[in-house]
Automatic annotation (TrEMBL):
Stored InterPro entries: ArlJ-like
Name of the protein this chain belongs to: Flagellar assembly protein FlaJ
Stretches assigned to coiled coil: none
Domain of life: Archaea
UniProt keywords, alphabetically: Cell projection, Cilium, Flagellum, Membrane, Transmembrane, Transmembrane helix
Keyword Transmembrane: yes
Record bears the keyword GTP-binding: no
Residue ranges of the TM segments: 161-183, 195-214, 235-253, 400-422, 442-463, 470-493, 499-526
Length: 534
C-alpha cells in the first residue's frame, strides 16, 4: 500500500505518468517474451490445439470454440484466440478479419502460421472439425521437429559450453601464473579480466542452452503436489534460510572455505535426493498416463458410462505407478465425494505437469459433451509425443551430466593444485633467500658475481607472490565455476527447480573436497629441493 501510494504521488506530480515507465514496461515485455512466451509457445500451442480438437467432438460451434479456448488463459497462445473472439463479438469483425488482424501482432512464427492457416481455412469454407484435426497433426509434427532440433542444438551447445568454460579456466590459470612471475602493479585489473571471461562464457552458454529446447515443465507447480514435492517445500522453508545464515557466519569467522562448501553439499543433499526421486516418479507416471486415458476414454465411449465405472473396468495391473492414484480417486468417487476435488487430488498427488494439463483437457471436453473415445485418443496421442521426446532428452542430458561432473572437478582441481604449488614455491624461495645474504655477498666480491646475480634473479621471480590476493582470486573463480555448472546441469537436465538442490549438493561437495585435499596432497608429494652448497 505504501508503494502504491508513492507511485500515485509520482504520477500526480508528472502529469499522470512515471518517469521511464514506458521503457520499463517495454523491457519487461521483452523479457517475458524471451524467457516465457517464446519458450512455452511450442508446448502451449500443442495443448491448445489438442483442446480445440477435443471439444470439436462435441459438435461445438465456432463461437463456442473461440470462447472456450480463449477462456483457458493458462496457455500463452490462447490470449490471441481471446483477442480474435473479442474483435468478433464486440466490434463486429468476421472471424477471418479478426484472425488476420490478430496475426499481425504475433511474432512467434509457429503461432503466426497457425492463425493465418485458420483464417484461410474459414475463408475457404473448410469445416472447423476438418481443419482442427489436420492442424493438430501438423502442430504435433512441427513441435516434434522443433524439439528434436532443439535437442541437437542443446547437444552442440553443451559440448561448446564445456569447451569454452575449460578454455576460460585455462586463461584464468595462465593469468594466475603470469602474476606469480611478473607481479604487475595493477593486479586487480588483471584478475578482473579473468572474472569477465568466465562470467561471459557462463551466461552465454547457459542462456543459449536454455533457449535451445522448447519449454517442457515437469511438475505442475500447484500449492499441493506429490508427497515428495510437499516434503521438499516443508524442508526448504527451514533448511535454506538456516543454511544461508550459517554460511554467512562461517565466512565472517574465516572458516575453511572447503568445509563451508561441504556443509552446503551435506545440508542440500536430502532436498536434492528427494527432488531426484520425485523426478523419476513423475517420468514413470507420465509414461503410463497415455495408456490410462486412452483406456478410460474407450470404456466410457463404448459403455456410455461416467469416469467412476470406467475406472473399475480398466486393467490397473498394467499401471504399476499410477495404480495407487487411480485407486484413490476411484474410492473417493464411489463414496460420493466431489468429482472435481477428487480429480484435483489425483493431479496434486501425481505432481506431473503433463497429467495436470491433459487430464483437465479430457475432463473439460467430456463436460462440454465430447465423445470420450475420440477425446481419449486425441489426448493420449498428444501426450505420448511429449513423453517420447522427454525420453530422448533424458538420454542426451545424462551424457552431459556424466561429462559435467568430472570436468568440473578437473577445472577446480587444476586451479587449486597449481595455486598451492605456487604458494609452496613462494614460501620456500622466500625462506631460502633470507639465508643467502652472506653467500651472495661473498660471491659478488669474487669471480662468482654472475652466478650470484643469476641465482638471485631466478629466486626473485616467485618471491613477491601475493598468496592472499591470489587465494581470494582462486576462491572467487571456483565459486563462479561451481554456480555456473549448477545452473548448466539444471538447464540441460530439465525437471523441477528442486533439482538445483541436487546439482548444488553434488558440485559444492566436489569443490569442497578438492579444496580440502589439494594442500594436503601438495604437501605430501611436492617437495622443493634445497639449495645446499650454493
Amino acid at each position: 500500500m505504501v508503494f502504491e501510494s508513492l507511485l500515485d504521488r509520482i504520477r500526480q506530480s508528472n502529469n499522470g505518468t512515471i518517469p521511464f515507465e514506458g521503457t520499463v514496461l517495454a523491457f519487461r515485455a521483452k523479457l517475458f517474451k524471451f524467457f516465457v512466451e517464446d519458450k512455452m509457445m511450442g508446448s502451449d500451442l500443442l495443448f491448445m490445439l489438442t483442446y480445440m480438437a477435443a471439444i470439436i467432438t462435441a459438435n461445438a460451434s465456432r463461437p463456442e470454440i473461440f470462447a472456450y479456448t480463449g477462456a483457458r488463459r493458462e496457455y500463452v497462445s490462447t490470449k490471441y484466440i481471446h483477442r480474435a473472439d473479442i474483435l468478433v463479438k464486440r466490434w463486429g469483425y468476421s472471424y477471418v478479419e479478426a484472425l488476420v488482424n490478430v496475426a499481425k501482432k504475433i511474432e512467434n512464427e509457429m503461432l503466426f502460421s497457425m492463425v493465418n492457416r485458420y483464417a484461410n481455412a474459414i475463408e475457404s469454407g473448410v469445416p472447423d472439425e476438418d481443419f482442427l484435426t489436420r492442424e493438430l497433426d501438423t502442430i504435433r509434427n512441427v513441435y516434434r521437429s522443433t524439439y528434436e532440433q532443439g535437442l541437437e542444438m542443446l547437444k552442440k551447445w553443451g559440448d561448446a559450453y564445456v569447451s569454452m568454460l575449460f578454455s576460460g579456466s585455462l586463461v584464468g590459470i595462465i593469468i594466475m601464473v603470469s602474476i606469480a612471475i611478473y607481479a604487475p602493479e595493477n593486479v586487480q585489473g588483471t584478475l578482473s579480466v579473468s572474472y569477465l571471461i568466465i562470467f561471459s562464457i557462463s551466461v552465454l552458454g547457459i542462456t543459449t542452452m536454455y533457449k535451445a529446447v522448447p519449454g517442457d515443465p515437469k511438475t505442475h507447480g500447484l500449492s499441493q503436489g506429490s508427497p515428495e514435492q510437499n516434503m521438499i517445500h516443508r524442508m526448504e522453508r527451514k533448511v535454506v534460510p538456516i543454511l544461508a545464515v550459517i554460511v554467512l557466519l562461517l565466512l565472517l569467522l574465516g572458516m575453511n572455505y572447503g568445509l563451508i562448501l561441504m556443509l552446503i553439499g551435506m545440508l542440500l543433499f536430502p532436498l536434492g535426493v528427494i527432488g531426484f526421486i520425485d523426478d523419476g516418479n513423475i517420468t514413470l507416471r507420465d509414461a503410463e498416463f497415455p495408456t490410462f486415458i486412452r483406456s478410460v476414454g474407450a470404456i466410457q465411449g463404448g459403455k456410455g458410462t461416467t469416469m467412476a465405472p470406467a475406472l473399475a473396468d480398466i486393467d490397473k495391473k498394467s499401471l504399476k505407478y499410477l495404480e495407487p492414484l487411480v485407486n484413490g480417486v476411484y474410492t473417493k468417487l464411489n463414496l460420493g465425494l466431489s468429482d472435481k476435488q477428487s480429480w484435483q487430488r489425483f493431479i496434486n498427488d501425481s505432481g506431473s505437469y503433463l497429467i495436470y494439463k491433459y487430464l483437465n483437457i479430457y475432463r473439460d471436453s467430456i463436460q462440454i459433451g465430447g465423445k470420450a473415445d475420440k477425446i481419449g485418443e486425441i489426448v493420449s496421442s498428444s501426450m505420448l509425443d511429449q513423453v517420447l521426446l522427454r525420453e530422448h532428452r533424458h538420454t542426451l542430458s545424462m551424457g552431459f551430466i556424466v561429462l559435467l561432473v568430472p570436468m568440473h572437478a578437473m577445472m577446480v582441481g587444476i586451479f587449486l593444485f597449481l595455486f598451492h604449488i605456487l604458494v609452496t614455491m613462494s614460501d620456500a624461495i622466500t625462506a631460502k633467500m633470507a639465508t643467502l645474504g652472506e653467500t651472495s655477498a661473498a660471491l659478488t666480491a669474487g669471480q662468482g658475481a654472475s652466478i650470484a646475480s643469476a641465482v638471485s634473479g631466478s629466486l626473485f621471480v616467485f618471491a613477491n607472490f601475493d598468496a592472499k590476493v591470489i587465494g581470494t582470486y582462486v576462491v572467487i573463480t571456483i565459486t563462479m565455476l561451481t554456480i555456473a555448472n549448477i545452473f548448466a546441469g539444471k538447464v540441460v537436465y530439465g525437471g523441477d527447480r528442486s533439482l538445483i538442490y541436487f546439482f548444488a549438493s553434488l558440485l559444492c561437495a566436489t569443490t569442497g573436497i578438492i579444496y580440502i585435499i589439494a594442500p594436503i596432497m601438495i604437501g605430501i608429494f611436492f617437495k622443493i629441493p634445497t639449495f645446499e652448497g650454493v
